[in-house]
């Protein structure tokens, strides 16, 4: 298939605001009616009519197969090994005049992880969210996931939760889950932060409850940009573009290369590989809508395009990818060389796959330990040190028209 040569459609993609009123109504209902509203929506959207909203100890004991458990353990070990480098400590400074200042780093108390339960249960995302939170020191971590009419929780999800040591799972999904976590109900405590992927409805709900609770980011459709030169293998490039296109019909896959021949060969490979992929229809539509292949004269031009688009995933498949790493200004996660495809990062490399989408890598970062802590600054001034600054503080306050501020200083030295 032939990919679009124009990337203008990929810039400033608009979100669907038509769903906002419905999401607002559900949130308001849950805030007012608590558990009864949550149960009503669980029945309406997921056909779940079970008596309990929280998984029982018996349900938590259901196990998946040993082979899958071993894979999850290996993935968890790699995620933990990478993210342990992000931990921060409190610090202080002692000045000669007796002033003491510093910063306290404390973990959030309660965090909710949303795990979608649609076409696939994303146990990998559970690991990506839970492990950094645990390294930060978060004590209360709960999982929210939609449960269908049979009332069963995915064995794979239960296995991942056990590996992470999480014993609190709420059998609730959708907008009503986000509202319950953000504001609390009779049986669901209010959390400090909600993280994890989800549909456009989940993303909208998280955006609307932000402020009452923190969120990881407002995530949109997944995207990838591949920068390649003439040494790149078309088979690999095509496979990597397709790996993102299969996420959904609104996913974006872009190739930027100095080789016109690579574009031609990649398009042939895409057509060939589509013939045996299970989600070929989804991937094909995504590539038709938001796929592109751009020929540039130099790799510098390629990185200019990439930094402008600020991709969620950036693959650099060139003769010497490390030499180009300093050129990356805006990207969620960078994959260097032909043997480091994006799916490796999704599951086993150890880097986080909860990433900024839709160009938000210009100001957002991948999920990390730093997302689960808060900072408090402190200071102590002895009287002599304060006296040296009293005039500056008072005059500064008066220049802003805040005489009570100035008076707070004045009364101490009358």
What does the secondary structure layout of this molecule look like, with pairings?
Elements: H1 20-33, H2 35-46, H3 57-60, H4 66-83, E1 91-94, E2 100-107, E3 110-114, H5 123-136, E4 140-144, H6 155-164, E5 169-170, H7 174-183, E6 193-195, H8 200-209, E7 214-215, E8 223-228, H9 234-245, E9 252-257, H10 260-274, H11 280-290, E10 291-295, H12 299-309, E11 313-317, E12 333-336, H13 342-347, E13 373-380, H14 383-399, H15 403-410
Parallel strand pairs: 3-4, 3-6, 4-5, 6-7, 8-9, 8-11, 9-10, 11-12
Antiparallel strand pairs: 1-2, 2-13
Helix pairs in contact: 1-2, 1-7, 1-8, 2-7, 4-5, 4-6, 5-6, 7-8, 9-10, 9-11, 14-15
Question: Could you walk me through the main structural features you see in this protein, from its secondary elements to its overall organization?
Answer:
This protein is an alpha/beta fold and 414 residues long. The protein is 42% helix and 15% strand. It has helices at residues 20-33, 35-46, 57-60, 66-83, 123-136, 155-164, 174-183, 200-209, 234-245, 260-274, 280-290, 299-309, 342-347, 383-399, 403-410; strands at residues 91-94, 100-107, 110-114, 140-144, 169-170, 193-195, 214-215, 223-228, 252-257, 291-295, 313-317, 333-336, 373-380. The strands form three sheets. A five-stranded parallel beta sheet has the order 5-4-3-6-7, sandwiched between helices. Helix 1 (20-33) crosses helix 2 (35-46), helix 1 packs across helix 8 and helix 4 (66-83) packs across helix 6. The termini are far apart. The relative contact order is 0.15. The model has no long low-confidence stretch (mean pLDDT 95).
